[in-house]
Design a protein that fits this description.
There is one protein chain. The chain is of the alpha+beta class. It folds into two domains: about 190 residues, Periplasmic binding protein-like II (D-Maltodextrin-Binding Protein, domain 2, 3-Layer(aba) Sandwich), CATH 3.40.190; about 90 residues, Periplasmic binding protein-like II (D-Maltodextrin-Binding Protein, domain 2, 3-Layer(aba) Sandwich), CATH 3.40.190.10. Strand 3 and strand 4 form a beta hairpin. The N terminus is likely disordered.
């Protein structure tokens, strides 16, 4: 990501934040229509009556978070929207995407403005108090630093350095956890700055405000391919907790959860789901089948 591109991203996110602050989601021109062949299928029948009645699943996304979720010519694209569209086709129902500021995502589920959130959310105990998770993969973090790693950043020992993370993100939680570990070891804490979007975190590396930023492996890889000033450190950063990530669903909505799991199971049986997960770069981290709140589930 170039400095010019990061600035454009920051401006775009600022517009999203302004709308979110006023209580509005930012609707893209994008929606995905589904064929009628699946509408009599088992997965469609499991959809809650209110969703079948409105004829669509409303899906919240945060952009820009390439390659997971981002906009291209006004359309929501990325690895997770591709997966969600495949599920919508299997369910025989329209998928309507709504872009939101990150901090507005979970509230949009709590007030039922959205039915699902996609974007590789970290499944944590604290978040599970409010929402349910459909876990799609095991998670991990990679540290992004300046090319050549001039500060000799060691992801396993970042004490005394400065990190930059998106406000409200799980990366911020991990960075704070690493800072606490430094303190327990009698070492200088990892200082953590917060930003409104990943683009600002990457820009802070370039201008020397920070020494590292933690990112999902796919995001880190995508970014350094487009910004020759940055590089990804290979060791995975240890994260606390269950280490799963996936989509967010309303708490206790068994009907929606069962329908999504059923649709994914049908895609797995066809081999399509595994193909999409490989294309997403998830590889061996994919959970086949997915889990709900870190627990194995039956789709039938």
């Amino acid at each position: 990501m170039t400095r010019k591109h990061a600035t454009r991203l920051a401006v775009a996110v600022a517009a999203v934040l302004a709308l979110a602050a006023s209580g509005c989601s930012v609707k893209t021109a994008d929606s995905t229509g589904a064929g009628s062949d699946s509408k009599s299928g088992a997965s469609h029948a499991r959809l809650p009556a209110d969703i079948r009645s409105k004829g669509a699943i409303d899906v919240g996304v945060f952009v820009p978070y390439a390659p997971i979720t981002y906009l291209e010519n006004g359309k929501v694209v990325g690895t997770d929207p591709t997966l969600m569209r495949a599920v919508g086709d299997k369910l025989g129902i329209e998928i309507r995407f709504h872009t939101l500021a990150f901090e507005a995502m979970i509230p949009s589920i709590l007030n039922r403005r959205n039915d699902v959130l996609v974007g590789s959310f970290q499944d944590t105990v604290e978040r599970r108090k409010q929402v349910d998770f459909l876990d799609l993969s095991r998670s991990g973090m990679r540290a992004v630093v300046l090319k050549g790693n001039p500060k000799n950043v060691d992801p396993g020992n970042a004490c005394g350095l400065t990190g930059g993370e998106e406000a409200g993100s799980y990366q911020l939680t991990v960075a704070k956890y690493l800072a606490e570990q430094c303190e327990k070891q009698g070492k200088p804490r990892l200082k953590v700055l917060t930003f409104t979007d990943p683009g600002q975190a990457f820009l802070s590396l370039e201008n020397g405000r920070t020494d590292l930023t933690l990112q999902a492996p796919a995001v880190a890889k995508y970014t350094v391919r487009r910004n020759e000033k940055l590089e990804v450190l290979q060791p995975l950063v240890a994260v606390p907790g269950d280490n799963y990530e996936g989509w967010i669903l309303p708490k206790g909505d068994a009907g929606l959860r069962a329908a999504l799991v059923q649709a994914i199971q049908e895609l797995i049986e066809e081999g399509r789901w595994q193909e999409l997960m490989r294309e997403a770069g998830t590889g061996d981290a994919a959970l086949i089948p997915p889990r709900v709140n870190t627990e194995a589930v039956e789709s039938r």
